[in-house]
Amino acid sequence: MQKTEMLFGLPWLSTKPERAIFDELQFACVYAAGPSGGRPLRLGYASGSGLRETLRTLQKGSWKELQIHHIAWTRGDLVASRIADEAAAMLDRGGRRLVGSWFDVTAELGIQAINIATGKTGITTVTHGEMLEQVRRIRRERIEKAIKRA
Q1: Strand order in the sheet with 27-35
Q2: Which CATH number goes with the domain that contains 117?
Q3: Do the domain assignments include residue 38?
Q4: Which of 44, 106, 110, 118 could join 32 via S-S bond, C-beta 3.0 to 4.6 A?
Q5: Does residue 2 carry a pLDDT above 70?
């Protein structure tokens, strides 16, 4: 059994075939990340394969260890950017933007903004666990299909 890789507090895909399926499905995410237990909070989006690098870059400039407080997966960067932009616009109306994509809000408020934006746009998202399960289900199905052909 393989050790589960962790990415800023979340379990991640641990095999090359899983990561290949993940890339094939063109997942993108909207996330709320920030220091554990405090402000500020970054709301953003990333292509699935770009999330790791985005967060590593952010970590270099942070005085505390960052964690992902919330993540919602969808298909494609354009869709994810629409949700992130809508969530940021809500927080802007409250005057909560600090600089760039950083906001002076709690994780709970950032999560609410993402959830409301998702509902307003009508875009379907899945949780991190659901995304992992979809990828692993497809991998199992492909393995079973290959075994039957053999």
Answers
A1: 66-75, 27-35, 41-47, 102-103, 97-99
A2: 3.40.1440
A3: yes
A4: 110
A5: no
